[in-house]
Request: fold
Amino acid sequence: MHWAFVDYENVGSLEDISLEQYERIYVFCGPKNSKLKLGELPAEGFCRIELIGLKTSGRNNLDFHLTFYLGRHHEVAEKHVGFHVISNDIGFEGVVEHLRKLGREAQRIGTRQPRAKTNPRAEARAARPPRPTETAIPPPRDADSPQASAAAGGTARPRRAKATVKPKSLAEKPGASRSEPPALLRPTSPRAGQDRLPRQAVSRAEPKVAAKTVLPKAEQAASNAGLSPAALLLLTQLKQTGDTQRPSKKAKLLNWMQNRLQGPHVGVAPDSVLQELIAAGQLSLSGANVTYRL
Reply:
């Protein structure tokens, strides 16, 4: 058997709540909540819904009233009755944990997943077309070479050998033999000139050695402790935050962690990250107070 305490000012609707699993539902409405959105009504049995309307407004005004009713009904409800606080505000985790220590089954239930924050500048940079990469300029080709004719669409053919003709001065010399055939030039290879490339086309780039990243002693110790990426992210942000600006209470620290677990860390429970930091010796709890050892 369970009773529900709904922060309607936070959830804004009862459509995502299964009414049939609760014997009693206490709905806390703020001054701006003039209408209620009910979900599917129970098909069997009945469900008692009690509305608590507040006329005053202020920061955490409704949360204080809901917490007051939690303590009031804890004194009169049977021990086997469980309390469900339906709200997306993780600030109720502290009072829920206190009810558990008193022996009451208690749980906070959210109705939506936290939205990941978007960065318009990062999206604009990702949408830009990539810059053109530099390409090596091929060496110039001779217009009469077989490679140039092949590039123009023709078939590369070897050049025909040209016969050399002796000058008349040599042919008219006495003693010269006229029966010898004229010397022929050797046919040029179709790959002639292709084996030799200009020196500037040869790349002698030396391999680059990646620089070794040296982590600070505190972050290296946290990394060696086996912390998750989410815990390392929050630990870095805590170190960058001043001593007077760090949350000094457990509930505020959990809320602070929830607001920074965005992007790839959405869905990571702040309680698990808190336990990791405690196990790594970065902070400690004394009741609801938080002590940092960064």
In short: The two ends are 44 Å apart (CA to CA). The chain has a mean pLDDT of 76. The longest helix spans residues 61-76. The beta strands are 2-7, 24-29, 48-53, 82-86, 106-109, 283-286, 289-292.
